[in-house]
Amino acid sequence: MDFWEKLTxxxxxxxxxxxxxxxxxxxxxxxxxxxILTRGFQVTHIGHWFKKTIGSMFDKKVTAHTxxxxxxxxFQALCTALAATVGVGNIAGVSAAILTGxxxxxxxxxxxxxxxxxxxxxxxxxxxxxxxxxxxxxxxGGAMYYLQDGLGGYKGMKGVGKVLAVIFAICAALASFGxxxxxxxxxxxxxxxxxxxxxxxxxxxLYSSGGTDVTLYMFIVGIVLVILVGVVxxxxxxxxxxxxxxxxxxxxxxxxxxxxxxxxxxIAHIGTAFSHIFSMAFTKQAAWGGATGVAFKTIITQGCKRxxxxxxxxxxxxxxxxxxSNVKEPVKQGLWGIFEVFADTIIVCTMTALVILTSGVIDxxxxxxxxNSDATLVAEAFNTIFKAGNVxxxxxxxxxxxxxxxxxxxxxxxxxxxxAVEYLxxxxxxxxxxxxxxxFVIMIISGALMTSSIAWDIxxxxxxxxxxxxxxxxxxxSPLVMKLxxxxxxxxxxxxxxxxxxSYDPDIQKENAKVIEETGED
Length: 522
Description:
Layout: H1 3-37, H2 41-44, H3 46-52, H4 60-63, H5 74-85, H6 92-101, H7 104-129, E1 132-133, E2 139-140, H8 143-150, H9 158-195, H10 199-202, E3 205-209, E4 212-215, H11 216-233, H12 237-265, H13 270-279, H14 296-311, H15 319-322, H16 330-358, H17 374-383, H18 393-425, H19 429-448, H20 454-476, H21 478-493, H22 506-519
Antiparallel strand pairs: 1-2, 3-4
Helix pairs in contact: 1-7, 1-14, 1-20, 5-12, 5-16, 5-18, 6-14, 6-17, 7-13, 7-14, 7-16, 8-9, 8-20, 9-11, 9-18, 9-19, 9-20, 11-18, 11-19, 12-16, 12-18, 17-18, 18-19
């Protein structure tokens, strides 16, 4: 057995323990606890968070650029966070969940998202509350800070909080090179070069590994991505946010519209699709998946795991960009966290699921599919409508969707990784983060030429390892989340005159409270 096989086996063991034995259940438990403690905020105040998020899209306080180096607008923060979350997982991830866990996995994806709304809400609140200015005068926040200062602020927990903060930051930085970079690039290159084949380039094989040919075409696409990502990432958060706010709304709307066309064309099957989603969510499916069938546990874990991969609620990742918002109210950014999960999973992932389940590309009773490739299955579903003769427009559409989804995911994760490195570097952050960004851009080439999934699999494990300390922090700080939520509800919803609670730092608290008092800004 060679080194790579041993590494794969070891990673599979750790990954299985982190995700199946601990991660998924801890994540669900955290979402349930935060939902109960906030009295079902995502339901009881649904009108309020809709009004303050999607309903405020034409409010200049929300969308206008701040002109400040320290922050970005609330809408830019959302788009940058969605840039990292709305990615390959919304297409290939949903498809993989259905292929592995059956239609019932979609139900558990919804459940994970419902409770994940309050996990993401809690993370964002804590991120804003514990943020501080870095060496460049830019806001820095994230799980590492509320682990260090929040959990670490409890009696006798200073060392524990610091250790968990460091573990989180290390895993976040490492994961950014895998799932946030090489894995996404690999999906872009594979799908793009397949859909838009140029024989003169794809016929020139540079080398073969594991039965997969690496071509000149793949190398060229990788170089183009290096240039495009490099121009944006080296420009910093302001440039990443500016690109994200232009691409994200466009790509999400186009993907939803394309999905709606497929669903309407197959509207006669919509009832059957929903019926299978609910009926197959609670029982083992003997027929689905062949002789072995699909176990009930697999249905739950696949749905929850793929949902988490998609919306990242509980990973503590998107907090790092939400903390850069110009918002003064921690809870206000928490509302955007609820909407982020809603948009990513309840809307986009559901669209993908219904496209697959209504288009006939998979037999809902036996699980036999026209393709066992996750991304290809979605392309085949789009081809059922978007096809003229031998021209498969559906395949082109999905390839472009994956390109845009994955490209923006790379941009979002570059920010997450740089924030994690910034925390670890301390006083040397300015130099180290520049080196990180250069390495991040260079690693894109590795993703373009990658023939093994080991980089993706290992970073998947790091994702789980960063999730665990983050969720410990959220649970430990749940009394503060309750306190901040209650304070916000009293002031902003009930109209009571009480002092706002805005920051752990007395100076930031005083400054933000003064702004809110003078301008009424939230």
